[in-house]
Amino acid sequence: MARTSLVTGAGRGIGAAVARRLSTEGHRVALTARNEAELRAVAATLPGESLVLPADLTEPGAVAGLFDAVEAAWSPVEILVANAGSGTATPLHRITDEEWSAALALNLTAPFQCLRRAIPAMRAAGWGRLIVVASTAAKQGEAHIAAYTAAKHGVLGLVRAAAAELARTGVTANAICPAFVDTPMTERTVDAVAERTGRPRAEIRAMLAAKQPIGRMISVEEVADAVSFCVASPAFTGQGLNIDGGTVQS
């Protein structure tokens, strides 16, 4: 059955792969991110119906406007994939209030606002899928990404609370927790480490790959596989699904 889906952070990387997977599986896909050109490039590759809605989810009213636009064009959102996120590497004692606030705004507050806006229509319909792309940083601490880690721990708690609240409604809520994925965001991490340490980029990429016991980075398609599973399973809810090559065994 074709469903109305919304993917945030859909212009590249994981979000683009998830949009392609949902479209291939027959769903209508609304794509949002800040960069309209990237969204249109992704939309051009989708086999099914798509809707391009550029937005900055950290701006006041952006989330409400986004859902209003999807509903006006199609119907209420039935599958939400809250994927938009970003982080910076800064030692904890040097994190500014602005960095801290920005990390929480994008990685925690925006997903909260998306869930809050999506839930009433899903409850009324008796079916819905709430999926947040978190990180292994939602499960363990790591040096120099305290703000990102705090936000991802928070969003996993949000998902678990939503799952408990919605357990008898036909609406599921899950987080997907990838390790290092081969994406532009990881490339920015490589660039930051190279700038800070002076080490070659190839060496840093190899180091990040080696953090996974399988010895390589996770692919965006493997994360899309997890999203597909969450959509298909009515009994899978309240979980933080690790897609990490065995990094976090929980």
* Principal-axis shape: globular
Strand content: 5-15%
> Roughly how many Å apart are the termini?
33 Å
Main β-sheet, in a few words? 7 strands, parallel
Tell me the series of helices and strands, N- to C-terminal: EHEHEHEHEHEHHHE
Task: Tell me the number of helical segments per DSSP (H or I, 4 or more residues long).
Answer: 8
**CATH class descriptor name of the largest domain:** Alpha Beta
CATH level-four homologous superfamily name of the largest domain: NAD(P)-binding Rossmann-like Domain
The tally of structural domains comes to 2
Question: From the helix content, strand content and strand pairing, which structural class follows?
Answer: alpha/beta
What is the fold named in CATH at topology level of the largest domain? Rossmann fold
Based on the coordinates given, report the CATH architecture of the largest domain: 3-Layer(aba) Sandwich
Count of beta strands = 7
The residue fraction in helices comes out at: 40-55%
Mean pLDDT equals: 94
Report Rg: 17 Å
Unreliable parts? none
Strand order of the largest sheet: 3-2-1-4-5-6-7
